[in-house]
């Protein structure tokens, strides 16, 4: 049975480990921090009640992770680790949007068969004028014949501007979908990838347009079930173990080191770490020569935690 090393136990590393372990490979996960999950995990927080000074511990997510039914691979992972019962799926798309004018607007799919129900949603979205709604419908209809490869070298913002999807159409509809599905602003996100998502949402079946949210904290949803699954298949995970050196041998195996201590030899290595962490691994340039001259930007996730007595609907805020 081949031994595979995976550097990084964020969601990418965990999903790679689950997939390979399920195929019968022996996986070894190495994580530099004290816990897995990366940007998709939770941390403990003690909140003191102003009424009686009592304290209660909460598990707070370190990032917002709203999903949609078109997240096929993510949902497949949750199925593999027996965590599908930990998510909440809308019966049909319904979102309350609070605009800059502090008024609420409802984007809600209608009673007609898919995809006409989504067209109903656009026509009933009163944040937009009638003309803007028609423009959005024409844009969606054009997705049918769109070759997404023609958008490979432009951003979502450039594509939307060329397509006339500006003003409230941009800020009140497409920007929300872009940030929500890609976790990236339209001026940086790939138009090609976003177009693929829109084609799936609007043309791929009614299940794809449904909004999906975690019913538990992210560690309980992704991390803990993944670790349990990996270990049940004979894999192992080492925390507080940063990999800082990689050596390859003539037998095509790789030896990994952490703080000058050998972690062993492995037939294959998967690098599931951010670009800036990857460049810190001595010896990586032998396998990825371009890494030394490559720079990638990344952005932080800013999260606001609101404690509410009751959540009555799905709300998106402009900030």
Q: How would you explain this protein's 3D organization?
A:
The structure is a single chain. This protein is an alpha/beta fold. It folds into two domains: 3-63 and 217-287, 3-Layer(bba) Sandwich (FAD/NAD(P)-binding domain); 91-209 and 313-317, no CATH class. It is 30% helix and 21% strand. The strands form five sheets. Strands 10-2-1-14 form a four-stranded parallel β-sheet, with helices on one face. It has a three-stranded antiparallel β-sheet with strand order 5-9-6, with no helix packed on it. Helix 1 (11-22) runs parallel beside helix 8 (218-232) and helix 5 packs across helix 7. The radius of gyration is 22 Å and the shape is globular. The relative contact order is 0.20. The model has no long low-confidence stretch (mean pLDDT 88).
User: Could you report the average pLDDT, rounded to the nearest whole number?
Assistant: 88
Indicate the CATH topology of the largest domain.
Answer: FAD/NAD(P)-binding domain
Total number of distinct structural domains? 2
Considering DSSP H and I runs of 4 or more, what fraction of the residues is helical? Answer: 25-40%
Q: CA-to-CA gap between the ends?
A: 51 Å
What share of the residues does DSSP label as strand, in percent? 15-25%
User: What is the number of strand segments?
Assistant: 15
CATH architecture of the largest domain: 3-Layer(bba) Sandwich
Largest sheet: 4 strands, parallel
Superfamily at the CATH H level of the largest domain?
FAD/NAD(P)-binding domain
Tally of separate helices: 9
Broad shape: globular
Task: Report the order of strands and helices.
Answer: EHEEEEHEEEHHHHHEHEEEEEHE
| Largest sheet: spatial strand order | 10-2-1-14
Q: Nearest-angstrom radius of gyration? A: 22 Å
CATH top-level class of the largest domain: Alpha Beta
Give the low-pLDDT segments.
none
Report the structural category. alpha/beta
Quaternary organization: single chain
